[in-house]
Design goal:
Shape: elongated
Strand content: 5-15%
Number of strands: 16
Low-confidence stretches: none
Largest sheet: 8 strands, parallel, barrel
Mean pLDDT: 92
Distance between the termini: 80 Å
């Protein structure tokens, strides 16, 4: 068959910009474009057009002229494209095409906005550019909506209209159903494209299905991919796999050695610095057709476990999953964490036991072990109620353990079974509830009682425990091991194998936020509770401020 019926569109510089905020570096942008064109990739997506001015090292451009410095010498066999969101770029900024920069513009539009998106594409073509279109979340269209979309496309006749698996939710039968509608109803002069995401580890397999089906129908196609699959969330089909497949099965002529050189030279540093690709959270996004921003929010704001993410996303209405309403998501998260636990009697029991005693909170920071001798002497002299906070340090004996993280609960249970079994446990309702089969010495308190919103990371374990102790009228609290977090996460902990429950980009900002939360708690309780630090702590704002 004629290979030109199959074209590869590499979108590394566009889709990959979600990962590094478009900060590829000028030499990398130039090198990727140069190597891809020499590798005989037919279409190269150079980045985005944005309303903001172009900045050095970025694959966000304001006007096509901004792309020119990255094109060493245009190859007439290659199509150079950029993408715009149909409603996020002012077309008055777009000049007439003079042939020196890009050849085409890809216009992406959501379900329900095909007419508007295609009108934007039409206006772009009037300025001399070839036009490609992307129907985002094509899986969300009904068959009738797809036929209506095709009818609109047939009127405008862009060079290509792409099926887009926005949430990585398609299975092969979904793709073939959609492909059959396009193949049988789309004007034969319009190419059919496919843009996949790898949420369910199916991206490459779906590309193969797409190629096999469409070539059997005699359709000209465009298949999207990126180097190493670089792209938001689970990423995309990989250019190296796709071109290798086409070389082996469809008489392709792509230079795999040069593609591998490009990965070694330009992509390995990004792989070392950034994270993308299949993961359990992105799988959940694919399973429920959820926007990846919902998953990112739950991970970064709450360090939610996979089980928690699945529970929250599954509780949302389908139409809410495909967008990202963070207020709605936050409310769903809180609902999920509370589990409607009746904890009134539990609080009365704890108040009876704790109210007239000093409480020692043993946090898992390294200072708890480094100052073991002094802390042990303090315990022996003052006989406080010793509560381990979200971790077990085997050097100590505990009167209670407190957990607000299901991951830390499971780690403690598996790593220190004897201590875990013998110590009574106070659990927030996001860890367990009465329906989950509580152990005989476990009690559950509603998650909402321990939090105060207003900060990004508002459910720090030590501060959650302080809030609970305030609610049961404890008057004397000592704290050990409440250490600042370092850039190397586990360096902060006495147990270096303690599983992470944080996804933080700026640790200094994170520490400042926790200090502000602690200061807010202290201001609210005024002098009702005496708090003593047994180990030096960055969060002891009274000491660090000289008060």
């Amino acid at each position: 068959m004629n290979l030109k019926k199959i074209e590869v569109l590499d979108c590394t510089l566009r889709d990959g910009a979600y990962i590094n905020k478009s900060d590829f570096g000028d030499s990398t942008i130039k090198g990727i474009i140069r190597n891809l064109q020499h590798s005989k990739v037919e279409i190269i997506e150079c980045g985005w057009l944005k309303d903001d001015s172009h900045k050095q090292d970025s694959s966000y451009y304001h006007v096509p002229e901004d792309v020119i410095p990255y094109l060493e010498k245009k190859d007439p066999a290659v199509t150079y494209v950029v993408m715009i969101d149909y409603d996020r770029y002012d077309l008055s900024n777009l000049p007439q095409n003079d042939g020196r920069a890009i050849d085409a513009v890809r216009v992406v539009f959501p379900r329900g906005k095909a007419k508007e998106g295609l009108e934007v594409a039409r206006r772009i073509r009037e300025k001399g550019y070839r036009i490609f279109c992307q129907a985002a979340n094509t899986l969300g269209y009904t068959d009738k909506e797809i036929l209506d979309l095709i009818s609109e496309v047939n009127e405008v006749k862009p060079e290509c209209i792409s099926i887009v698996d926005t949430f990585g939710a398609m299975f092969p039968d979904d793709l073939i159903r959609i492909c059959s509608l396009f193949a049988n109803n789309l004007h034969p002069d319009v190419k059919i494209g496919f843009h996949s995401h790898n949420n369910q580890q199916l991206s490459f397999a779906l590309c193969i299905e797409f190629i096999r089906y469409m070539t059997a129908q005699g359709r000209s196609i465009v298949v999207d991919s990126s180097l190493c699959g670089m792209g938001r969330g689970a990423g995309n089909a990989t250019t190296e796999l796709l071109t290798s497949f086409l070389n082996k099965k469809y008489s392709g002529n792509y230079d795999l050695d040069l593609i591998m050189d490009t990965i070694d030279m330009f992509m390995v540093p990004f792989e070392e610095k950034y994270k993308w690709g299949y993961s359990i959270p992105t799988f959940i996004a694919g399973m429920y057709c959820s926007h990846v921003n919902n998953i990112d929010y739950l991970l970064k704001t709450h360090r939610a476990t996979a089980k928690e993410i699945r529970s929250v996303i599954s509780s949302m209405e389908p139409q809410d999953r495909i967008r990202y309403d963070y207020d709605l998501l936050e409310n769903k998260y809180i609902e999920n964490q509370n589990h409607e636990v009746d904890d009134g009697e539990v609080l009365k029991t704890l108040e009876s036991e704790f109210s007239n005693r000093e409480i020692l909170l043993l946090a898992p920071g390294r200072s708890s072990v480094e100052n073991y001798s002094e802390i042990s002497q303090y315990i022996e002299k003052n006989h406080p109620v010793v509560i381990g906070v979200n971790a077990i340090l085997p050097e100590y004996s505990y009167d209670y353990l407190f957990f607000k993280s299901a991951v830390r609960y499971a780690y403690a249970q598996n790593s220190y079974p004897d201590i875990f079994k013998s110590a009574p446990k106070i659990l927030l309702s996001n860890v367990k509830n009465s329906k989950d089969g509580l152990l005989p010495n476990e009690i559950v308190i509603r998650y909402e009682r321990a939090i105060k919103r207003g900060w990004k990371h508002f459910d720090n374990a030590v501060i959650c425990m302080l809030r609970l102790l305030d609610k049961i009228n404890v008057k004397r609290i000592s704290i050990a091991g409440f250490d600042a977090f370092s850039a190397k996460y586990n360096d902060s902990y006495a147990d270096p194998k303690l599983p992470t429950v944080h996804d933080v980009e700026d640790w200094d900002k994170f520490n400042d936020e926790l200090k502000d939360m602690f200061a807010d708690f202290c201001r609210r309780i005024e002098s009702n509770i005496r708090i003593t630090f047994l180990t030096d702590s960055f969060f002891d704002f009274m000491k660090t401020s000289g008060r």
